[in-house]
Amino acid sequence: MNILVINCGSSSLKYQLLDMETENVLAIGLTERIGIEGSRVKHETVGKEKVVIEQPMESHKEAIQLVLDTLVNPEYGAIASLEEIDAVGHRVVHGGEKFAGSEVITEEVIAAMEECIDLAPLHNPPNIIGIRACQELMPGVPMVGVFDTAFHQTMPAYSYIYPLPYELYEELGVRKYGFHGTSHKYVSLKAAEMMNQDIKDLKIITCHLGNGASVTAIKDGKSLDTSMGLTPLEGLAMGTRSGNIDPAIVTFLMDKKNLSIDEVNHIINKESGVLGISGVSSDFRDIEEAAEAGNERAQLALDIFHYLVKKFIGSYAAAMGGVDVLVFTAGLGENSVSSREEICKGLEFMGIEIDPERNNVRGKETLISKDGAKVKTFVIPTNEELMIARDTKSLVSKNLIK
């Protein structure tokens, strides 16, 4: 079964074509600048040269059409015909409380996704546009929606309800939802597999650390708590997001600097985090380089980030009554030797001890804890596309059997 995985952003579209009999990637690509001058697709079929195709794409439908044309191109494509695509898996950011798992896409499912637009105004609209475009261009091909929020729907009420008037939850759905669920699910399952243990017997803390970052407590294979909230703004300081701050800061800034809601929202979402602290960049690689060169604000940004991750690890260990496994994933988690070292420093009392030699690794699936350490610590590159493809295969297969 060949499955096409689609991840639509506001002006970009990532895709992968996978052979799910072997779980091998057949082709991978990215379309950029949809609706903007200079649009192009970067495509690679495994075993062939990478190609860059510059072509105007005024809409997501045109972008998906170009992707499909590229996949069947005789010179650099991966398949001979679109009939070789058996199903499409779509990443959807927000499913609210409506979806506790992935779903075969129907008109009812799309309507429920539209109801969540207020909760994810930047993400759900392009996700839906991508689905509609695929339906039009690939009629009859089964499609599945895989929701970033679904994995966290196992959180208990005491974990997701905010201490606000309860009516706000009932009327507007104001609660913690969490994000990066597909990534947290993938790496926790992979960690259990690497340990040859049932995930239901483990207490796992997964750290998805990149420009967007979140930490999740996974007990008995289920999300117990996660650092992101109603929106991806809550939790850790990130590339440009503030993470947890005193909420009164919002009204304080509006009053003292005569700012609108949109202006404050822009500050805490786009100008804060490690960018705001360092004044250097939102990219941790640039900040690490500046810190090594003696930039004190860059070093402060790193110190704050490491401290916050450490705090979440400690609090989630307390929430679960212990921890058996710690996982680092995503861009920074997979590639920053120094960040993993600093985050784990001082956590020896709770059994987290990493081996400096084992930790000297980037982007590789491996154990980095010391022999005999109570907590097994892993680096596991995330693979959200494979997780989406697996869910798609499972659901489509069940529906075909019916």
From TrEMBL:
Residues holding Mg(2+): N7, E384
GO molecular function terms attached to this record: acetate kinase activity; ATP binding; magnesium ion binding
Write down the chemical reaction(s) this protein catalyses: acetate + ATP = acetyl phosphate + ADP
Q: What is this protein called?
A: Acetate kinase
Site annotation Transition state stabilizer: residues = H180, R241
Q: Which InterPro entries match?
A: Ac/propionate_kinase, Aliphatic_acid_kin_short-chain, Aliphatic_acid_kinase_CS, ATPase_NBD
Could you tell me which pathway this protein works in? Answer: Metabolic intermediate biosynthesis; acetyl-CoA biosynthesis; acetyl-CoA from acetate: step 1/2
Single GO BP term: acetyl-CoA biosynthetic process
Family statement drawn from the similarity comment of this UniProt entry: Belongs to the acetokinase family.
Give the location in the cell: Cytoplasm
Return the cofactor note field.
Answer: Mg(2+). Can also accept Mn(2+).
Record note on quaternary structure: Homodimer.
Look up and give the organism this protein is from. Dethiosulfatibacter aminovorans DSM 17477
- Role according to the record: Catalyzes the formation of acetyl phosphate from acetate and ATP. Can also catalyze the reverse reaction.
Give the source lineage, highest ranks first. Bacteria, Bacillati, Bacillota, Tissierellia, Dethiosulfatibacter
Q: Summarize where substrate binds, as residue positions.
A: R91
Q: Where is the active site?
A: D148 (proton donor/acceptor)
Q: Which residues bind ATP?
A: K14, H208, L209, G210, N211, G212, D283, F284, R285, G331, L332, G333, E334, N335
